[in-house]
Amino acid sequence: QSVLTQPPSVSGAPGQRVTISCTGSSSNLGANYDVHWYQQLPGTAPKLLIYANTNRPSGVPDRFSGSKSGISASLAITGLQAEDEAVYYCQTYESSLGGSLFGGGTKLTVL
Amino acid sequence: EVLLVESGGGLAQPGRSLRLSCAASGFTFDDYAMHWVRQSPGQGLEWVSGISWNSASIGYADSVKGRFTISRDNAKNSLYLHMNSLRPEDTALYYCTKSPTLTNVRFDPWGQGTLVTVSS
């Protein structure tokens, strides 16, 4: 079964830097498919945060950055703010599924 | 402004059917693949189904294959999800979203979702 693995939770104090990992396999991230990241604030729809591994849509602060290498990807958030408290999902294309695959989500708590 | 507005959710008994709709505006609808993604209460995101711009390519999650049918009407800028043989585990908020292609799954934006509850 195809899986994208994320840590269930991360936390950090305001101003600190946190990273969220996303590990896939040879049939998704390892097959050179892009990873995308979404932020879901409480009670709202997901919002695209990072696309194609490293790119920020217009309006997303440069405190958010993404990287990808092989079957792994990560999202980094610097200068943590209270408003960053949300659930973050990684996502890619899974060839064996013929569709999209999401990670399980990581809840970020700003202490 | 790009808008995706879902409708058609509600309460259904197990084994019954529902049809979800998604009305799109603010972009050239037939330039994009479209998808349904669901989120069960308190859970993560699950891709349900996707359809290419011309309906030539369609994909389903294993959990809904054979029960759900995705379709689109480019003349009406609309996406649909026909859900048959509903199960309690289909209870979720169903989102509509678009991507450049079926394999470039950059989902942006998302609708507000429509809630489906399957219960007797």
Key structural traits:
heterodimer; A: 111 residues; mainly beta; six-stranded mixed sheet; three-stranded antiparallel sheet; 9 strands; 44% strand; globular; B: 120 residues; four-stranded antiparallel sheet; 10 strands; 0% helix; 48% strand
What can you tell me about this protein's structure?
The complex is a heterodimer of chains A (111) and B (120). Chain A is 0% helix and 44% strand. In chain A, the strands form two sheets. In chain A, strands 1, 3, 4, 7, 8 and 9 form a six-stranded mixed β-sheet that branches. In chain A, strands 2-6-5 form a three-stranded antiparallel β-sheet, with no helix packed on it. Chain A is mostly beta strands. Chain A starts with 8 loop residues before the first strand and ends with a strand. In chain A, 40% of the residues are buried. Chain B has a six-stranded mixed β-sheet with strand order 2-10-9-4-5-6, with no helix packed on it. Chain B has a four-stranded antiparallel β-sheet with strand order 1-3-8-7, with no helix packed on it. Chain B has strands at 3-7, 10-12, 18-25, 33-39, 45-51, 58-60, 68-73, 78-83, 92-99, 114-118. With 120 residues, chain B is mostly beta strands. Classes of the chains: A mainly beta (111), B mainly beta (120).
Question: Which secondary structure elements does this structure contain, and how are they paired or packed?
Answer:
The complex is a heterodimer of chains A (111) and B (120).
Chain A: E1 9-12, E2 18-23, E3 36-40, E4 47-50, E5 64-69, E6 72-77, E7 86-94, E8 99-102, E9 106-110
Parallel strand pairs in A: 1-9
Antiparallel strand pairs in A: 2-6, 3-4, 3-7, 5-6, 7-8, 7-9
Chain B: E1 3-7, E2 10-12, E3 18-25, E4 33-39, E5 45-51, E6 58-60, E7 68-73, E8 78-83, E9 92-99, E10 114-118
Parallel strand pairs in B: 2-10
Antiparallel strand pairs in B: 1-3, 3-8, 4-5, 4-9, 5-6, 7-8, 9-10
